[in-house]
Design a protein that fits this description.
This protein has eight helices and nine strands. With 249 residues, it is α/β, with parallel strands linked by helices. It comes from Yersinia pseudotuberculosis.
């Protein structure tokens, strides 16, 4: 079973080596690592060439943002399963991809997700907060819940059938995609109760400067799927509070 892992980069030299190293260390053998670069002007591509031992596809050209880049990756992926590893994220342990692959030994499983920890960008990789996603339940959506996108892996055939990311949404296209796959298409999704990914705080979706854009996008998505509006958005923020105490489910 081949697993395609897509990494979108743009001037990612400060973080990409850790990302590549974490993938290089994975014990699972059959990995196709795809780099979609937005035309970096730093030495990102040189670092990918030097450290990307498992990189098999590199595309570097101007894009319309991260979701456009991910869509390009999906379009060229040849693996049975597709997942995302952002250019400032890392796998939490060396058997993470193996644990993901094991889930798909059951042919009835369409997708899986797990937990993630947010870590400091200061260099010490200190855990700032942890998101324990918990078992899947549609009832969680009324609180603004979604499977952690960076831990989400789905069959390639379903990406081809259901489509990728809505590039009109600059911040919340992952939220839209998760709802489209799970709430609308009713895919069979399985929860892996392990921290699979370390995500550095301060990425595209965690910068304070992006919060207004995030609010606008998320309200559009909530309305699109009849999940309410401002109240659901507020519930989502409240629902996240226990993450800072590392107990949220």
């Amino acid at each position: 079973m081949k697993i395609s892992i897509i990494t979108a980069t743009y001037n990612s030299a400060s973080t990409i080596v850790e990302t590549l190293d974490s993938l290089n260390e994975q014990t699972y053998d059959n990995i196709e690592h795809i780099i979609i670069d937005g035309g970096s002007t730093d030495n990102t591509l040189e670092l990918v060439k030097a450290y990307g031992k498992r990189v098999s596809i590199v595309i570097s050209e101007k894009d319309e943002g991260i979701y456009d880049a991910l869509n390009k990756g999906i379009s060229v992926a040849t693996g049975d399963i597709i997942g995302i590893l952002h250019s400032d994220d890392m796998f939490a342990y060396i058997d993470a991809v193996s644990d993901i692959a094991k889930v798909f030994f059951d042919n009835t499983v369409d997708a899986c997700y797990g937990d993630l920890s947010y870590i400091s960008r200061s260099g010490d990789n200190r855990v700032v907060r942890t998101w324990i996603a918990g078992d899947y339940s549609e009832s969680k959506y009324k609180y603004g819940w979604m499977p952690p996108h960076t831990t989400f892996y789905m069959k390639n055939a379903l990406y081809k059938k259901l489509g990728g990311y809505d590039t009109a949404l600059k911040i919340a296209a992952d939220y839209d995609a998760m709802l489209r796959y799970t709430l609308v298409a009713k895919i069979n999704i399985v929860y892996i109760p392990k921290i699979l990914i370390y995500m550095k705080v301060g990425g595209v979706s965690t910068r304070l400067s992006q919060k207004f854009e995030s609010l606008k996008d998320e309200l559009i998505v909530m309305k699109r799927y009849n999940l309410g509006g401002v109240m659901t958005f507020m519930k989502k923020k409240i629902y996240k509070l226990p993450q800072f105490f590392k107990i949220v489910k």
